[in-house]
Structure formats: C-alpha cells, structure tokens
Amino acid sequence: MAGRQGCPKKNTGGAPFAMSSYLICKEDLIFLISMPERRLYFRCPESYLFEESLSSDRYFEYIIGDKDEVLDYLKNHMVKKPSVSKRDCGNGTKHSLLTVETMREILLSLNKACVLYTGAGISRAAGIFTQEEFISFMYLDRLPEFYDLLIKCPNILFSRYQMFASMLSGMRPTRAHNSIKMLCEHSGAKLVSENLDRLHEKTGIIPHNPFSEKELYHWSPERVILLGVGAPQCVNLLYSWVSHGARCDILNIADPQIPYFDYQLCLADVQDFFCEMAL
C-alpha cells in the first residue's frame, strides 16, 4: 500500500479517537480512520487473522492514503479463519487420519496446482539441529547464562555459531530431499520451505521462501502437503491458502495440532516414508 511504513505498531492503549475521525464497519471488521494524522487504527476480530500477525486482540496502526485505498488493502490482507468440520482434537484443531498408502497416492497424483511445504523434520536425518536443539546449543534457552557469555566471553558464542555454520555447509540432502525434487519435477508442483539449510538447493531445486516472499499470500493452490512440519512458522500463510479452498494434508511423525485448522494427517517418519515409497 502506498505510504505504508514498516510493520504494524502495536497500540496497547486501545484505538485513539481524534476529533476529525470516523468509523468504518464492514461485516464484523471495525476500522477507525483519523484524518488529521492520516492514520488507520483497526481491530482484527476473533474470526479473522491479519496476514502479518497472529494477534487478534490488539489495534494496529498504519499510515494511510485515501479511504478506498485502505479498504482495498485490508480486503487483500485480512484472512478469514477457515471453517472446520471434522472431529475436534482440542485447541480448535480438527483433522482426520490418513493411511501411509493413501498419502502415497496423494503424492503420486500431484499437479501444478499443488504445493509441497517442508519443515525441519525432513532435515533432521541429515544431522541438522531442530529449532529447539539450536536454541539450546546457543544457550538461548538459558538467558542469564547467554547474557553472561555475551558480556564476558562472546568468543564462545561466536565459535559455536561458526561450528553450526560449518556443519550446515557439509551436510548432504536426505532421501526425502531427493524424492521431493523428483515429485516437483514430475508433477510441476511448487515447493515452499521454511528450512534455511539449503539442502533443497543441493538437490538442484530452489524452494520458495515463506518468510520473505509476500506474493505467496496471493497463491490459490488446490492442495497443500506439509512434509516434516511439526510447528509451522508461517501459519498465517497456510490459513490464507485453506481459507481460499486449498485442501491440506500433513505427513509428520507427530500431530502439529495447528489451531483453527482442518487437515488430513498421516503419522509417519518422513525419511522412512520416502525410503519405502522408492521413487
């Protein structure tokens, strides 16, 4: 949006009202536009998510242009939470279970309208740290100790990070990485990955980055398959796709229990799955 500056600024004191301001109510969305400061204050209600934040109980502030520009921007960036219809598994999560055979059939029937979305689970077999392991390795789960090292012995932290970076450079793709490349090449399906280990790139395929490519929010895939994603970092992107009609299937060793999400789940180890699939 023209004139927008940076990320949302949280305003914990509620939406401020100016003398020359007016409210816009559209369905259950409530916006306050303050004309003197040319700022927009709006509340994201419980039935919606704003694509750049999971917070739904705060007001966000944006520099604005005219009213029509504001409404067009919000229309394109407000994501209605997907409706759910299957068995409730707690915390708003609903899913049905898939067999390994059914998941294989789904992957073999991929087409250009499908997206494969990978997470840390496909790289663990290569020796890559999980997020929790990296946090512990860098003392980030022990903040007093981390700050003490940062002040007194920063070289320890630097050497650990160098060790991690060196380890990444020497890692090789797993069977799952190679199989995913073959699936994408044969089907034309798109690949999106939260992983920054570059193991996909070492197979010869460049995945889309959900952290930096905002145009992914404008995709409308028919089907999304999450592979080795235990705790998706870009969950609002997934909400956006599902809210626009995408079906979602998950292959993972454990149920990620994504809140307000409707999906089919295959409980299996990703590496074992692709070894047995033998593409």
Please tell me about this protein's structure.
This protein has 279 residues and is an alpha/beta fold. 32% of the residues lie in helices and 22% in strands. It contains 9 helices and 13 strands. The protein has helices at 67-77, 100-108, 131-137, 143-152, 154-170, 175-187, 199-202, 235-243, 270-277; strands at residues 9-11, 21-26, 29-34, 39-43, 48-50, 59-63, 78-80, 94-97, 114-118, 190-193, 223-227, 247-252, 262-267. The strands form 3 sheets. It has a 6-stranded parallel sheet, sandwiched between helices. Strands 1-6-4-3-2 form a 5-stranded antiparallel sheet, with no helix packed on it. A two-stranded antiparallel ribbon has the order 5-7. Helix 4 (143-152) crosses helix 5 (154-170). The longest helix has 17 residues, at 154-170. The N and C termini lie far apart (45 Å). The model is unreliable at 1-38, 44-64 and 81-92 (pLDDT under 50).
